[in-house]
TrEMBL record:
GO terms for cellular component: membrane. Keywords: Kinase, Membrane, Transferase, Transmembrane, Transmembrane helix. This is Sensor histidine kinase. PANTHER family: SENSOR HISTIDINE KINASE YPDA (PTHR34220). The chain crosses the membrane at residues 20-38, 44-66. Residues 325-434 form the Histidine kinase/HSP90-like ATPase domain. It comes from the Bacteria. Pfam families: HATPase_c, His_kinase. One of its GO terms (molecular function) is phosphorelay sensor kinase activity. InterPro entries: Bact_2-comp_sensor_kinase, HATPase_C_sf, HATPase_dom, Sig_transdc_His_kin_internal.
Amino acid sequence: MNVDMEDNRARLPRYFTLEMLMSVMVALSGLVLIWNLVSPAVSVLALFIAGMVFTLSITVLIRLLMDPDSVRARQSSNVLQLASQTLEAMGEEGLDSKSAQRICSLLLPSTAAIAVAITDDRFILGYAGYEESHNLSGSVIRTHATYSTLADGKTRVLFTPEEIGFPKGTHGINAAIIVPLTVGKDVKGTLKFYYRRANHISETQKSIATGFGQLLSTQMAASALEEQTALATKMELKMLQSQINPHFLFNTINTIASFTRTDPARARTLLREFAKFYRSTLEDSGDLIEFRRELEQTQRYFMFELARFGEDRLELICNVEPEVEDMMVPPFLIQPLVENAVRHAMPSEGKLTIRVEGVRQGDDVVISVIDDGNGMTQEACNNILHPGSTTGCGIAVGNVHDRICGYFGAGTHLEVESELGQGTTVRLVLVEGALRQY
């Protein structure tokens, strides 16, 4: 209550309009007129000036109040402000009991209703107004009209207590408007306006109820979409974690087993790092991690490939600026690209060198994975970036591309440059990536 009063006081200066100024002038000049009429010493000049000010002020006030454009402008301003406050009340959490109660309290003073309620498909989420203490959040829905709206998704305008579901003459609520709250084709709840008399339901009241029902439905749909997107990202990451190349797993185990006889110390080191590798793989399920952690995991992966193929066949060089190491990135960003290079770019003879570079360009960050291996044709490059690519290489690159675009937004992109027999460069351009810090 105190917070609301403070909010209202804070908003008063914005509402001081010309109509209010004219009202003050009318009141002051009227007081001067009355004072002069009842005072023994009448000042003709003061009486004349007060009369002129009173007449002009009340004329301007009536003109302002009767002007259709002025009336519509005030109504539009009030509705837009109320809509903004409603959306703010929902916030990032969507429609829950806390936000529903806040919205009911916001809507009640702006209508002719004596009570406003919001429900989900089973319970009351928020209630403000008449008999509020008997309709607490979490109470089960009681009126059959509400259940009917939940069932068929139709807006109901009800003019008798019996239509609502109240016994006649036993309730102060005698009319109602019930609007469905929908997400797609599913009815998720209702917005209800209760009235003391049926004649209080005007076309304006119907428009307010319908408009705010649509507003809440739209916001609920947006919240549901954000939730589904976040869930899809997490599921995608879980899928990545569960689809670690089984050949890599078996090859690494065989490599460690071979070292148990020839180099037991190295076998122990590899086994310890292998445990760290998989523990980190399973634990890196957060939305973002430091880029240095992603780099460490990539280097740990490369250690096993180096043990398998030998230092005369593989080399990894990392040249990343310290600022880039502090950047926050989605996990599994660089490792799939380095793994791609080992699997697809290694020549039949000679050495494959892979370089990971990270530089800051203003607020943007550019990360490159460069190899001097087999390379590929321009057609193969185009296929990798094509959304329909189903090859192992295309899936990995496409997955990285989709996730960086999802995290870093507009302008972020992935580039692939390659020349047959000369090598391949995969470049990630992360817009405002330098701002992704702890």
